[in-house]
Specification:
Layout (H helix, E strand, L loop, with lengths): L1 H13 L5 H10 L9 E8 L2 E8 L7 E7 L13 H11 L2 E6 L10 H16 L5 E11 L1 H12 L11 E5 L11 H5 L8 H11 L7 H6 L5 H7 L27 H6 L15 H4 L4 E9 L3 H13 L4 E10 L9 H4 L2 H15 L2
Helix pairs in contact: 1-2, 4-5
Pfam families: Abhydrolase_3
Protein name: Alpha/beta hydrolase fold-3 domain-containing protein
Family: Belongs to the 'GDXG' lipolytic enzyme family.
Length: about 350
């Protein structure tokens, strides 16, 4: 069903009926929240950033765990309302205070406004946690898809902040983390798997950072990576670090493309760790909090998660990894939409996240 919506949106955009991004926003806004009298829900602003806070009404004299949630949508769609069910679910199941962050969207608010809003909201919450009944030492940040990218980038931005409490953990749900190699095994194996087709992943990413779509072919070939960068990144981004069992489904090593100076200069943004957190320096990675990473077998982004897991573990960071063998990109998002759309893999992923949160 999600794939169908994407294709409809693309078609209507091409024929000039409604822009793809606006249609996707409208469709996500139509997801009805389920009524829940057990929760206290309020809309606030953390500095300039809209947030919605969820907490159980039951009186609790002890300070609770805090969760900041950054929704997916490639920085261009998605909203607090679209993620209402998921945030309510986490609040109920873990007795946490959940803050859903309504960051500004592109193209109206160009990248990196999305990251800046998530960082602003996180810093504000870390500073004012007790005002919301939250233990500042038990704050977890969490996001799915591009929200997972934002989560990783915010966690990295905070590692050297001595004036703030440390994050307790980060939860990355099938995150996008790099644009160095789009021929990793997962990109090859799942290039035609809905909802995140290989080509669509790159097009959405380039639109998000307002880059020329004319260089997509060169990026797929790897012509945008200079020799210097290739040498630097090959110790972090390489099929060599993907476990063998993930290569058995028809993976073939890709020939290396000679870099083009023109494309290397055009693609400069793609190597910014805010956009591609897998490319952060070792000194940053080594200070990250405990991490939960969820990957799906049928997802082009699977190997981004696997590579980040390896980098974190190489630096002694504790990682809890959940791999959904039958999962696809978006499976956790649709898990709470009832039997029609809910898939077993998504329900399993949600349960694993809840189990992790309860330990925090």
């Amino acid at each position: 069903p999600c794939g169908f919506f994407y294709h409809q949106a693309t078609f209507l955009d091409k024929v000039g009926v409604i822009s793809e991004v606006h249609l996707l926003r409208v469709m996500m806004e139509t997801i009805p929240p389920l009524k829940d009298s057990r929760l206290l829900i309020k809309d606030l602003r953390f500095e300039r950033v809209k947030v919605r806070i969820y907490q159980l009404k039951t009186s609790n004299k002890n300070l609770r765990r805090g969760i900041l949630y950054f929704h997916g949508g490639v920085g261009r769609f998605g909203s607090i309302r679209a993620y209402e069910r998921k945030c309510r679910y986490f609040c109920r199941k873990t007795n946490s205070v959940v803050v859903s962050v309504g960051y500004r969207l592109a193209p109206e608010h160009p990248y990196p406004a999305q990251f800046e809003d998530c960082l602003t909201a996180t810093i504000h919450f870390l500073r004012t946690a007790q005002d919301h009944g939250v233990d500042p030492s038990r704050i977890v940040i969490c996001g799915d898809s591009s929200g997972g990218t934002l989560t990783a980038a915010v966690a990295q931005a905070l590692v050297n902040r001595r004036d703030l409490p440390k994050l307790r953990a980060q939860i990355l749900i099938y995150p996008f983390l790099q644009c160095v190699d789009l021929n990793l095994p997962s990109y090859q194996q799942n290039k035609g798997v809905p909802i995140l087709l290989k080509e669509r992943t790159l097009v959405l990413g380039l639109k998000y950072i307002n880059m020329d779509l004319g260089i997509t072919e060169e990026i797929f070939k790897g012509c945008h990576v200079s020799e210097d960068r290739r040498l630097k990144y090959q110790k972090w981004v390489s099929p060599d670090y993907i476990p063998h069992e993930f290569k058995t489904r028809g993976y073939k090593p890709s020939p290396t493309c000679l870099p083009s100076k023109e494309f290397c200069e055009m693609a400069e943004y793609l190597f910014d760790p805010v956009f591609a957190p897998l490319l952060a320096e070792d000194s940053v990675i080594a200070q990250l909090p405990e991490t939960f990473i969820l990957t799906c077998e049928f997802d082009v982004l699977r190997d981004d998660g696997l590579l980040y897991k390896k980098r974190l573990e190489d630096h002694g960071i504790k990682v809890t990894w959940c791999h959904l063998q039958e999962g696809f990109h978006g499976t956790v998002f649709v898990a709470l939409f009832g039997r029609v759309l809910g898939f077993r893999s998504g329900a399993k992923g949600l349960q694993k996240i809840v189990n992790f949160l309860r330990l925090m």
